[in-house]
Amino acid sequence: xxxxxxxxxxxxxxxxxxxxxxxxxxxxxxxxxxxxxxxxxxxxxxxxxxxxxxxxxxxxxxxxxxxxxxxxxxxxxxxxxxxxxxxxxxxxxxxxxxxxxxxxxxxxxxxxxxxxxxxxxxxxxxxxxxxxxxxxxxxxxxxxxxxxxxxxxxxxxxxxxxxxxxxxxxxxxxxxxxxxxxxxxxxxxxxxxxxxxxxxxxxxxxxxxxxxxxxxxxxxxxxxxxxxxxxxxxxxxxxxxxxxxxxxxxxxxxxxxxxxxxxxxxxxxxxxxxxxxxxxxxxxxxxxxxxxxxxxxxxxxxxxxxxxxxxxxxxxxxxxxxxxxxxxxxxxxxxxxxxxxxxxxxxxxxxxxxxxxxxxxxxxxxxxxxxxxxxxxxxxxxxxxxxxxxxxxxxxxxxxxxxxxxxxxxxxxxxxxxxxxxxxxxxxxxxxxxxxxxxxxxxxxxxxxxxxxxxxxxxxxxxxxxxxxxxxxxxxxxxxxxxxxxxxxxxxxxxxxxxxxxxxxxxxxxxxxxxxxxxxxxxxxxxxxxxxxxxxxxxxxxxxxxxxxxxxxxxxxx
Length: 558
What we know:
Layout: H1 3-28, E1 41-45, H2 67-71, E2 76-77, E3 87-88, E4 91-96, E5 102-107, H3 121-133, E6 145-150, E7 153-157, H4 166-171, H5 178-181, E8 201-206, E9 210-215, E10 228-232, H6 237-245, E11 251-252, H7 259-263, E12 268-272, E13 277-282, H8 297-306, H9 309-316, H10 352-361, E14 365-366, E15 372-374, E16 377-378, E17 380-386, H11 390-404, E18 409-415, H12 417-426, E19 431-436, H13 445-452, H14 474-484, H15 489-506, E20 509-514, E21 518-522, E22 526-527, H16 546-551, E23 555-556
Parallel strand pairs: 1-10, 1-11, 17-18, 17-19
Antiparallel strand pairs: 2-3, 4-5, 5-7, 6-7, 8-9, 9-10, 11-21, 12-21, 13-19, 13-20, 14-15, 15-16, 22-23
Pfam families: SBP_bac_5
Keywords: Signal
GO biological process, one term: peptide transport
């Protein structure tokens, strides 16, 4: 009997048990070290509110956060915190030729898929051929050719040097089994409800409130020490706090105020590794179908000037958030990549006079209600935030009051996690509070490629890959392309300066703050979590690739 079949019954029983416990935990304070089956189960909360969508397609925006890293793996793992050398996964070594146009990768000989089929270099070749055939999957922008000289070697060839793009190919591309995907109907819409992966965990049970990944007994790196991971959905940060304190969550990535005081005397600990940059995402392009006042760069600039970020940090984020650069290069880590004219961080205090000036110069006038308008359209916009995300909700409630002083009406709207995700993906929003994610390696190039390149966006109503703001600028596109093959740091910085000039002026993402990234661990049941001294992976459970590295490193407390 297969691993999946042998465990199905007891994990189903555990699902019923866990649902009941979660419903009662905040009231009763009862806790459990394991599932009803007696196996060690790590309960994970990534901030999801509402129902889970049964989507394990690693190429579709909106796939569940465990898909990339726990179920599917790339060739190598890149640590964006430490910048250490890539760690072998399905690849064991790689080498470029001198001019960066040929990349040779040796693949692992001892790996197999979760259905028992053998992994080989042919799966890698199939994956990259598929990226070229299906542009919607090709977030990495792969434009090379791939050959397979033998069962454990793939060779990529490129027309231009590919040094900069290699981390996206090697570390941010999920490798998929050819024997499954070659026979899949409509891969661009198929949600892959029964995923076959190479990772340390595999799907065991799913329902809209929680789902289970079980340890892969035949994982090439050895079976994980924990038996299962259970991902749960809650109503928001308050219920997450209650559930954490009752001992029913082992790993979470959420915001909590006064965390040191809350955790005193418990087995809970945390790290704070702020990397993602919180911004007001704007549906910015009229040409791509966006509507609303935020399509005018003058309105976006006025919002930028009208925000009191210091107040937002104090009121909504307990002072945990950090200052950010308007260039979206990460301050501290990426200072050498910021053009001198943009060295100053975003302002902490508002500049109401500057906000007024930019709107007046653009032809706006205040109405009797104190709100600016132009051509009969008031500067009034809705900003979407996820229900239960108390920090984001508080931030937007405070921002709405701040912007009234400018003459801008900002209306916060709480929506489910799934609706928030779908709205961004399809472009059916005016403003949305979110974080611009870091790329696969420690360089702003990957932020520019993923979040600003035209090839990663789409018209409103169509699925966008990462560039949710519908930003399209040929000058930026050309500079990103040139940076990918820049021969020197000086040449790359010159291209970054071009990009930064455009995006600071256009501001499709209105900078707010560098988001705190609290990763919370319960050390009573398992150990091996990342620490400040040993940040072997970015520790949040909602971070693709890193979450798989953390999960397979955990050790059960005996």
